[in-house]
Write a structure and sequence with these properties.
CATH class of the largest domain: Mainly Alpha
Number of strands: 0
Largest sheet: none
CATH architecture of the largest domain: Orthogonal Bundle
Helix content: over 70%
């Protein structure tokens, strides 16, 4: 394996294990056993398990954001309002997958609650990146106050994820999506006129 391949494999395997079992429940030896490398090889790529967790979150941030935006652009065609609502279609599909274990980033915030922790910062960065994308779409959709609409949509996204993960509500995305559509229509009413 090349160094780049080893690093990518570490990120992929660790990300899967962290998502399935939790960050603190997974030991570095589990990751190394799955990847098939030694601790010496691991330390050529990462200084510590925390360093690996930050790298996993950063990698998944980019990957997830690109996938989410591709989905909403496809589902919403050229209509920014439909694209905003499509976030909840995406959530609904995700929530119905048997391997759903909540949001990797929200799980990280739960396990690493200190705002000064680099892991917490990396997890919060994902929410910030998604919020910027939602704000941009809200502006394109003609929202009178794109920041306010984006904040409302982000609250609905986070609440739907929590409702599905903690309470087992399989319809949380549909419920939140219905509320989001009302908010989008109200916020963009002037643009439709």
């Amino acid at each position: 394996m090349t160094a780049a391949t080893t690093r990518e494999r570490l990120l992929g395997v660790a990300g899967d294990l962290f998502y399935e079992h939790g960050f603190q429940a997974v030991g570095i030896d589990q990751v190394l056993d799955r990847v098939g490398i030694t601790k010496t090889a691991f330390y050529k790529h990462f200084e510590s398990k925390d360093d690996l967790i930050v790298a996993v979150l950063q990698s998944r941030d980019t990957q997830d954001l690109n996938e989410w935006l591709a989905f909403v652009r496809f589902k919403g065609a050229q209509d920014a309002r439909r694209q905003l609502a499509a976030f909840f279609d995406l959530l609904d599909e995700w929530f119905r997958k048997p391997e759903f274990r909540g949001c990797l980033f929200l799980n990280a915030l739960t396990e690493f609650p200190s705002e000064n922790d680099p892991i917490n910062k990396a997890a919060r960065a994902h929410g910030d990146h998604l919020a910027r994308a939602v704000t941009q779409l809200a502006g394109t959709a003609g929202a009178r106050d794109p920041d306010a609409l984006a904040a409302q949509i982000m609250l609905l996204i986070t609440g739907a994820i929590a409702s599905r993960h903690r309470a087992g509500d399989h319809d949380a995305a549909k419920t939140a999506g219905g509320v989001a559509r009302v908010l989008i229509d109200a916020a963009c009413a002037d643009a439709a006129a």
